[in-house]
Specification:
The complex is a heterodimer of chains A (about 280) and B (about 325).
Chain A: H1 7-34, H2 39-42, H3 57-65, H4 68-99, H5 105-114, H6 124-134, H7 140-164, H8 168-176, H9 181-192, H10 194-210, H11 213-217, H12 226-231, H13 241-261, H14 263-271
Chain B: E1 4-13, E2 16-26, E3 31-35, H1 42-50, E4 57-62, E5 65-66, E6 77-80, H2 92-102, H3 107-120, H4 136-148, E7 154-158, H5 166-183, E8 186-191, H6 194-200, E9 203-208, E10 211-216, H7 218-223, H8 228-233, E11 240-243, H9 245-248, E12 254-257, E13 263-265, E14 271-280, E15 284-291, E16 295-302, E17 312-316, E18 323-325
Parallel strand pairs in B: 3-8, 3-9, 6-7, 7-8
Antiparallel strand pairs in B: 1-2, 1-4, 4-5, 9-10, 11-12, 12-18, 13-17, 14-15, 14-17, 15-16
Classes of the chains: A mainly alpha (about 280), B alpha+beta (about 325).
Chain lengths: ~280, ~325
């Protein structure tokens, strides 16, 4: 099926793709630009695009006013911790669902996904109370647990689609060769699924890094990650767009850089199964 | 060492009975081929023996010991899969070493055995490659290597050659036969290809819908098929079946005549007909001859034969080469 791509068609598609790309990226770009403006320039009307006095003042002030690195470290611990814990639970679950499915496996998968359709605020109060009673409020452990649970359905689904692509005969060969269940998962399945596991890991770190509902509601000071760091600039004494933008830029920079370097892996992971 | 006995084994998948109660015994050192059309249960039967599927009822005995519920690895059997099932992320060396590593052998012992197997299978130069860098035949040899290092009591082959091209298939067929001569280990081989069955087997088990139709040596099956199914399945080209008046003359519901037993005669003969399609293979010619009241007969004739479409010929079969079957399809002896 050879579809001829005329140069004109190619040009139109390219222009369109760039337009969509820029449209999606614009808010982030605007945030970054605003972070270098003075507060006055930030709210200027009509808005200033590039012709303003570039300044690093906002960054200096944000750095002075709050402890960026403590929040950064909390974000790292929470996102990496919840992702690793999630993988630890999800790999055996996805193995079971992909290779020894039962009559209800499909239903279980759907049920797990359905939990993602629940508005989180609906369970905020019970979870808050549980956390309060268990002494998990404002702890990193608490956030790791809650984020693991929130993202587990996605982790399992992604791994499940990956594992489905691995021929069952290879695992049976391992069983014939004397591998125990753990040896089979450790020496055969996991190494074969490394690309899938890697993109699941990356996506989950990003999701956890950006998660703002639970991280804001269940933390106060000690365990607050970067999302809380941003939020702290949006309230008390009115809006300061430039400082808020500087804080946002600092918060998203690490994950943006990580995403940039791993985009090939991510795209491959997300389209896996759909494109062979 | 290496005897396998199935007693009243059945297998159901949900409501579907794939293997009805079945008995089979395989003697040590035998090369047994399970043959039958796709969906006949031959692979399932092999997997039951391997332990990759659990039997629904009945017992599997290996070496006189009940292995019905034993783990696959504990049965001392090695399996070669149709898709080779090599570990793609490991080198050839690691692939072959994997079962030994799982068995907890020390490294020196593993190296010695892997090198030995590689030598037998001409894989020494490829030990550091990944399966993805090998040809189909080489991959199959790695799969066999992974099986032989374990020194199993029996080898199980699940259609191992069906992913290879025709020329390679003939080579590998010989290699596996030679391997059997050399090791004298029990081998169970599943195939849908009757040529593989005939050329390799000591004993052929013909299966249909989970039932064993006949068990015997290749020539037993060829010379005295138990029923129409076996008669039609063994032999190439397929046996000609004739029903009706012509069959009644021989006191049977159906008679069967193999293409290679039909002799072309000049004038007098049993059946007169006209040549339809003539397939020239070089060594042989397969003639499709339309005979009135009998149907189309396939005749195997010498290669250099100057017969063409529309030519009239007469064919005859010696009386002792006529197979007779009753109404149920069972052979009349």
């Amino acid at each position: 099926m050879a579809r001829s791509v005329t140069p004109r068609r190619k040009m139109v598609v390219t222009v369109l793709a760039w337009a969509v790309g820029l449209l999606i990226f614009f808010p982030i770009l605007w945030t970054i630009l605003t972070s270098f403006k003075t507060e006055a320039d930030a709210i200027a009307s009509p808005p200033l695009f590039l012709g303003f006095d570039w300044t690093l003042e906002n960054y200096a002030e944000v750095q002075e006013r709050s402890d960026y690195f403590r929040h950064f470290w909390n974000s790292v611990v929470i996102s990496v911790g919840s992702t690793l814990l999630g993988l630890l639970i999800a790999i055996p679950s996805a193995w079971a669902m992909a290779f020894v499915p039962g009559r209800r496996t499909k239903d279980v998968l759907m049920w797990m996904l359905s939990t993602k359709m629940l508005p989180p605020v609906g369970v905020l109060i019970p979870i808050y109370l549980i956390f309060r009673d268990a002494g998990l409020l404002d702890t990193r452990t608490g956030l790791v647990i809650v984020l693991t649970l929130i993202n587990l359905p996605i982790i399992i689904w992604m791994l499940f689609t990956y594992f489905k692509e691995i021929p069952g005969e290879i695992l049976e060969a391992a069983r014939m060769d004397g591998a125990t269940l753990w040896a089979e998962i450790l020496h055969v399945l996991t190494p074969m699924a490394v690309p899938g596991i890697a993109s699941t890991l990356l996506l989950n770190i990003i999701l956890s890094w950006n998660e703002a509902f639970w991280t804001l509601n269940l933390t106060a000071a000690k365990a607050a990650p970067l999302t809380a760091f941003i939020a702290s600039y949006s309230s008390p004494e009115g809006l300061f767009y430039a400082k808020l933008s500087a804080a946002s830029t600092m918060a998203i920079a690490p994950i943006l850089i990580m995403g940039w370097f791993s985009q090939k892996q991510l795209v491959r992971g997300l389209t896996f199964g759909a494109v062979k | 060492m290496g005897s396998i006995v199935l007693k009243q084994v059945t297998k159901r998948f949900g409501d579907v009975e794939v293997i009805p109660p079945l008995d089979l015994s395989i003697v040590e050192g035998e090369f047994v081929v399970f043959v039958g059309p796709s969906g006949c249960g031959k692979s399932t039967l092999l997997r039951l023996i391997a332990g990759l599927e659990d039997v629904t009822s009945g017992t599997v005995e290996i070496n006189g010991q009940d292995a019905t519920t034993a783990r696959p690895a504990a049965r001392g059997l090695a399996m070669v899969f149709q898709t080779y099932a090599l570990y793609p992320h490991m080198s050839v060396r690691k692939n072959i070493a994997f079962p030994l590593k799982m068995a907890g052998l020390d490294q020196a012992e593993i190296d010695r055995k892997v090198n030995g197997a590689a030598q037998v299978l001409n894989l020494t130069d490829y030990l550091d490659r990944r399966p993805g860098q090998l040809s189909g035949g080489q991959r199959q040899r790695v799969a066999i290597g992974r099986a032989i290092v374990r020194e199993p009591m029996a080898f199980l082959f699940d259609e191992p050659l069906s992913n290879l091209d025709a020329a390679l298939r003939v080579n590998m067929r010989l290699e596996i036969s030679e391997l059997h001569q050399k090791l004298a280990t029990t081998m169970i081989y599943v195939t849908h290809d009757q040529v593989e069955a005939m050329t390799m087997a000591d004993k052929i088990v013909v299966l249909r819908d989970g039932y064993i139709e006949q068990v015997g040596s290749p020539l037993e099956l060829y010379n005295s098929p138990a029923n129409l199914f076996v008669a039609g399945f063994i032999g190439s080209p397929k046996m000609n079946f004739i029903e009706g008046a012509e069959a009644s003359k021989h006191g049977a519901h159906t008679i069967g005549v193999r293409p290679e037993h039909l002799v072309i005669t000049q004038d007098a003969g049993m059946w007169q007909g006209t040549v339809g399609v003539a397939e020239h293979l070089g060594s042989d010619t397969f003639l499709h001859v339309a005979v009135d009241g009998v149907g189309t007969l396939t005749v195997r004739a010498p290669g250099e034969l100057a017969l063409r479409h529309g030519d009239a010929i007469t064919v005859t079969v010696p009386g002792d080469k006529i197979y007779r079957f009753d109404r149920d399809g069972s052979a009349v002896r």
